[in-house]
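User: I'll paste a sequence; please echo it back and then give the predicted structure.

Assistant: Echoing your sequence first, then the prediction.
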Amino acid sequence: MSIDKIIDISRVLLSIAGRYLVFAGAFYLFFYVWRKRAYWYAKIQQRYPENKHILREIIYSFFTILIFGAVIMLVIYASKLRLTRIYPNISDKGYAYYFLSIGLMILMHDTYFYWTHRAMHWKPLFKLMHKTHHLSTNPTPFAAYAFHPLEAVVEIGIVPLIAFTIPYHGTALTIFSLYSLLLNVTGHLGYELFSQGFTTHRLFKWHNTSTHHNMHHRLVKCNYGLYFNIWDRLMGTNHPDYEKSFDQIVEKRKKAKGKEGIALLPDGLATE
């Protein structure tokens, strides 16, 4: 392997690892270290995972980053050979399509994620690959990439699917990737940040919450969606108590707030 290829691979891996550490690390440090006492009232499950569970999430994430890097490098090389549908200049298709393509990527990924996720809950596939992710019954932001290697391949599969099917600019794919990582991390945050009425609002109810995905990790056979609550509603796979659970968490959060909007963690930190 040439030095140039080694440098290219290193740059891709550092980019993926850097984004993961910045997003997951920042949310973890804020909610689980620096301000954990102040925001205890927003914790969906009123206990914290033990350090061994957090370490497991980080170790699996390391292998996920390697697999993501390998697939992305293949897409980059395919692009250099003009095998993908990448185009060089935003002006080639205009800004209207540029922003439309980002929205299309998000919708494509939401559909891809829902159906591959449901497939991985088929008993043989669940035992083979998806059970690893579900070891995080009380997930932290580091669970965002805590996949079995085979599941990591499935998860990153959306990138070549986009690259070979729709015209895209490189920066549009980057924006999509950042958005995807942000939503993935906040979905595994373990804290509910949205306000009361979010899940019943005629517009906002179509977007998922941390409660939605946290229930999936805890209850398993429900709430399969990623960004939006479209497929779960269409397919009847929302947990029947989803909206009720969200309201209970938000109500608990409101009652727990002190006069200045801060509730302190009770003595005796609860852990798994």
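The two ends are 46 Å apart (CA to CA). The chain has one domain: 3-193.
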